């Protein structure tokens, strides 16, 4: 099977493959998704962008080092008010979460309610350790009560155990998604460990469900830090998108340059091939006749198989010209050739209207005529042009 591409297309393809080899990230460009899918259908393994070296993308606004630092800047590097924050507590394996699947009996519910009352009394007296124990006993008896988890979570807050509080309030919200108290105390716990966005979200939700002054006060306290972080993330996301757009534009620029380079190389190669091949170059005044054959109207006429065959026949044996005197298409082309020959001042003996029978002045035919003799070389000096 012969190659369906010309040399110029092959040169461009070669340049594109070479570019992909040195810049494999380009295969992840959305505009080249069809090519990536084709490679993968053949079993090729396309490395992910993180596994490949980064492209050398020029960034004029900021240097790569500064940009990378800005994009990776953690929230802790922002100017946040962290007054009142505490060191997060480690997970306590002894924290009793109860049997979530247990269906408490009426006796269990009643006993749990009694324990809860005792725990609230201890909490009011400031005995948080005792309150914690009593709430835990109540949870064991009735693990389906969201209120018990919320109250114990509030107790954990008093004991400076925000993570334990978060765990209890999260369980409470599984049991009752509309628990304003669970959102409130979990939001406060997030604030203590500097999780500003989560704190603002929970406290805002608590206020929406059941507004109270303390929740509103806590929300106002965390909102400035939460907004700073949100703005920082939006800015970082904007920079990320801008960087991706710059990289994409750079990749497209390189592809265009590669195509232009390939086209230039193909043009040079084509010129070298034409100058170095074995195609016949007519001598002397014959070059003018060959230029005449490149006339668009004449070339179009030769696209007709009937006309091309007739001139091939005449070029083989000039005497065959008489066979085509009644053919209007052939005679029209001969008339056009004759007119152009006379108008150009060229004199080719043997051509109709220019000194003789058609083709008589071209032993062996018309080298370069469409129909099969484009690359035919002229005969030897002692050849009379006849077989």
UniProtKB/TrEMBL annotation:
Question: How does this protein assemble?
Answer: Homotetramer. Interacts with Hsc70 as well as DNAJ homologs and Hsp90.
Question: Compositional bias (Polar residues) at which positions?
Answer: 267-280
What family, per the record? Belongs to the FAM10 family.
GO terms for molecular function, please?
A: Hsp70 protein binding; protein dimerization activity
Q: Which SMART domains match?
A: STI1 (SM00727), TPR (SM00028)
What the protein does? One HIP oligomer binds the ATPase domains of at least two HSC70 molecules dependent on activation of the HSC70 ATPase by HSP40. Stabilizes the ADP state of HSC70 that has a high affinity for substrate protein. Through its own chaperone activity, it may contribute to the interaction of HSC70 with various target proteins.
Q: Is the Repeat keyword given for this protein?
A: yes
The protein, known as: STI1 domain-containing protein
- The STI1 domain extends over 295-334
Q: Which InterPro entries match?
A: Hip_N, STI1/HOP_DP, STI1_HS-bd, TPR-like_helical_dom_sf, TPR_2, TPR_rpt
The UniProt entry's GO CC annotations, sorted and at most eight, read: catalytic complex; nucleus
